[in-house]
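Could someone model adenosine-5'-triphosphate with this protein?
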Amino acid sequence: MAPIIQVEGIQKQFDARPVLHDVSFTVNKGDIVGLLGPNGSGKTTIIRLLNGVIEATAGKILVNNWDPHSQGHEIRKISGILTDGAGLYHEMSGVDNLRFFGKLYGVNDETRIQQLLEDFQLADHQQKKVGTYSTGMKRRLGIIKAILHNPTILFLDEPTNGLDPEGIQMVLQNIHTLNKQYGTTIFLCSHILHLIESVCTQYLFLDHGTIIESGTKSELETKYIKEISVKIETNAVVNELNPLYKVVKQDGSYITFILQTKEQLPRLLEEILKKQFWIHHVEIQNRDLESLYFQIRGVKNEDR
Ligand SMILES: Nc1ncnc2c1ncn2[C@@H]1O[C@H](COP(=O)(O)OP(=O)(O)OP(=O)(O)O)[C@@H](O)[C@H]1O
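Reply:
Sure, complex below.
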């Protein structure tokens, strides 16, 4: 896949205070990239740099082969962006906001506007002033505004902030559909790791203004997760199992094992069943994105 975002040796200072140091990464067309990092690590700053809202102190950025600083208007034509305030006009109704931004993007498609209002369950509220909307409603309208012109690249800064579980599902579903149907490249940052885990294909880990790690979940798992912690609901008698499977906890019918490789898991399950014990539930505990996040940050902090 061809790269659509190329970032090389970016530095950014605000009032001589360095915020980003030597940030480099590439995003390929059609990827859904999650930029992860603690508060203040520079995620929003990166999104603003990619859109040409602010200028880098040093380094090179290309978005669809355009320089965001001198060709930001080109980038904005093919991209959608959702940021904290969403840039909505509070004195205007929801639908008028969309008509206004639609015109700016050259999209005068009332059918599309109405369809998106339906999809994000805002159709009944479209005539109300945006100032009267709840946080979640503003967020959903902001997302419609960002995707109205069917962008090639979508930048989402904390897209699920302020949304209820239904709203979160709506947004994640839409991200997925856009990517699958149109091959939209999506660059998002979020703190809610278990939510973005279901949509992202690649991750960038940012810490103190530096990308400390990147890759697919499977690449990162292979690199960082050395042991697998698995919790099994079973009536197995531990002494009757191969001692290779280390038991770290037993709580009623829940036994937690530590395995050295993922290949050991089917063997362990097979052994339990062969010995005529039952298994009701199996849960791998340390292979989720959150575990990876802490593992990576821990390892990198030790290296410092
Ligand atoms: N316009 C600005 N002027 C001065 N400092 C700024 C400006 N914008 C951001 N910063 C500083 O840059 C650092 C990175 O901010 P940024 O908003 O990019 O972090 P973030 O990772 O998005 O944080 P959060 O998770 O809290 O949204 C912070 O210390 C912030 O205070």
